[in-house]
User: What shape does this take?
Amino acid sequence: MTPVRVNRRGMLLAAGTGATVTGLAYLWQEKYVGDDLQGSPLAVDLTELAVGKLLALDWQDKPVWILRRSPTALAGLEAHEARLTDPRSEKSVQPATCRNRHRSIKPEIFVAVGLCTHLGCVPQLWGSDGFTCPCHASHYDLAGRVFKAGPAPANLVIPAYHFESETRLVLGSSA
Ligand code: FES
Assistant: This one.
């Protein structure tokens, strides 16, 4: 299988070879299945992360987001599930500990790779409803679950992580 780098430049290089969008999406998923996206551990202090705030990190040449969700945001995740491509995250990439409605270990702390699963653009916050990709208008909810209306085939990738203490998260390892 042709290797595809998991960043925008890599996706564009792959597109230049004539690969189809569907093929790229497939390769995107294949890159992570089975390895849980582990990597150089990075400790992150969440003490200053207020409710509603998104912390954007650069980790392994990829943007990674950490968002502290409000109780209202969490309560709203169920309402739109009929409009989602993969509401139970059965075909999306995340650690087993994050295969739940909120796609996280602690419900309020959301961690995700900030790259669209269509062609790898970086989505932006979409008001208080989730994330929107400026490239071809894929939308994701506040758990990174993609809406059916856009071209992205899967939910945002959740990397491996764990909590070392109540306020200290370690990205890149599920130990
Ligand atoms: S890259 Fe096409 S919708 Fe995001």
